[in-house]
């Protein structure tokens, strides 16, 4: 029969605590604390049913091997006991899965099978899979280890449970002959096929004596275990900690801000409180503030924070007098002209187009927002949504070579994920939304307009619109150019060139198979027949940067597919549509006096949205005009929701050109761009810097996720301080072992 043993990773091998405040476990593992299974009056395991608890120690001395002690654990559990199985470094709480369910405890993992034999790993593993009633194809991770000590075996199992509970895949340095590069992520989210649970197998083999290479299996004792993910997961890592500090100071005047900076300086240098506690109390106080101005201070250590504080104090009068902004490389930020206030209503979400996704993007985010990833998994196929097989491929050459349809899916998926993060985790709602090219589709998919955007994933992968018409063999282009099936293949390319649109448009009649595809600040994108594009560049006297990607979007031949684009994007809408967001499209911006959102009249339907996308898709994209239109409608603070920060760079250039020319007073008004992600940067650090800017711009938001994380950090530190003997050994390289149930 399969085993059904619930496994909970404990935050320490000892849970005793001598403090007078709330026991740390109430914060670290609230489900376990509330269950009543453990009591903390004198001894953490003294309860009315303390006779049900059994402590078993695994070590490398005497007859206490991991395999034997685990058998003893299973026997105890079958007799109704709860067992704490531990070494000096790690600790597990084990109980019947039914008991965990009755006590509303979400286990980190389930032990489903345990088999021992001397016929080799393959047969022992087959026996374990048979006991667990699992098909080998459902096992998404297989670990084999030779000649480990008992404590090492326990640590390996503990690590695997932690990976299951944190939904994290740790990569091998070599995979199918491909070596992991030094800049590639060492771990990422553990993706599985839609609605398929994670199952892992781990096998240990121990030599029985002299081994022979011709008959290795007969000289080994093998033990195999089958583990499946539980309904709980490792609680979020704290966004802020000792290495990532953030303080927020707010006031209505310059004098008030300077006083707040001086007060924080005194508090930090007095050493009267733990740094984490000071930071937590600071954020709690800010959560209640409605002051006009806010300064965010960020640093990687206390000495660095004091430097940031002093620099900010020195710069503050100048920034206030100039109504400007000040930002440090560490992320500290202040603006004397907040653009995101509720009264200003200037917050705009900007969605990038195809091609911004990159290998290993967001590889760390899931450990900080596990409930978000769990929600996205329940809603749809997260693996397909992010095109995980390509994005997280060990071969770094795979992501840049993704087909157009796959790039489109991953682009929308990344925007969808980051939007849910800001909206659901930090309670941020934009006043405007707009997209660069196919970013318009991301906009409608991410902000609660389409009822089931996940259905577009499979359509995008297989619809001829993306596979043949405007990419691949370019059937739409062949039709527009009146080519027969016997004519040669089209050699298509696109080039980014630093030139004005007018100078390019003047030459287009000479090159009928070259097109002005995109206008974006001081650069343009031309696309079409590679030979004609290169000839146009030569006549223009400019050098172009080849994109080496085949897509006919935003060129005249794409108009051949206009009706198909409308049909493709005609999607059912949510019953209740967002009314507080103005959706801005790049379609129909030729009329400079017409600057209206798609839903300006308060009306939205599937046809209107699909036509808007198709018009953008099939015509030249004037991103400069789109930004100007958004500004005229009131957008001031542009937050990029997607992989990397390409749109922020373009908007900054557009604004810089506007200020230089001073031809459009509306367009030269105050503007700020905020990237939420940046290729080459640490995911969580970039996010924290973005939050710091939004806070200073007084965007209505919640810092509760930061406070909750600090509460866990403080509780864990208290537990470790109470048990200094084991404090240095309880942190794994994966994450702190805290329980968080699925919701």
Automatic annotation (TrEMBL):
| Domain called Malonyl-CoA:ACP transacylase (MAT): residue spans | 350-681
Cross-referenced InterPro entries:
Ac_transferase_dom_sf, Acyl_transferase_dom, Acyl_Trfase/lysoPLipase, Omega3_polyunsat_FA_synth-like, PKS-FAS_Synthase
- Tell me a Gene Ontology molecular-function term this record carries: transferase activity
Q: Which Gene3D superfamilies match?
A: 3.30.70.3290, Malonyl-CoA ACP transacylase, ACP-binding, Malonyl-Coenzyme A Acyl Carrier Protein, domain 2
Identify this protein by name.
PfaB family protein
Q: What organism is recorded for this protein? A: Shewanella hanedai
